[in-house]
Amino acid sequence: MLISTDRNPEYSLYYLGAIILDILYKYKCIEIDLLFKSMNEKITKKLPIDYLYYSLDWLFLLDLIKLNGDKIELCLLKD
Q1: Alpha carbon of residue 41 to chain centroid
Q2: Which terminus, N or C, of the chain has the lesser number of Cβ atoms within 10 Å?
């Protein structure tokens, strides 16, 4: 699922995670419906909602995002 050779690269978790991080660098904290809308504006194909959830799970496991109430928040990396 991380790297998919039989599917479009737009659905890989690396690519989708990078888009999510790019959006979060801009907003710092965003509601999930606005995040989903912003992601669909950045990619060429319509994103299924489950791919958004897989990507959020992956970023959460990497400790790059956290849930803040009903919003997704960027965890800033410390030196």
Answers
A1: 13
A2: C
Region at 63 (left for phi over 0; alpha for psi -120 to 50; beta for the rest): left
Q: What SS3 class is residue 68?
A: strand
Q: What is the pLDDT of residue 56?
A: 94
How confident is the model at residue 3, as a pLDDT?
55
* Topology given in CATH for the domain delimited by 9-74: Arc Repressor Mutant, subunit A (1.10.10)
Dihedral of the alpha carbons of 11, 17, 19, 22, in degrees to the nearest 10: 180
* Distance of alpha carbon 58 from the chain centroid: 9
List the beta bridge partners of residue 31.
71
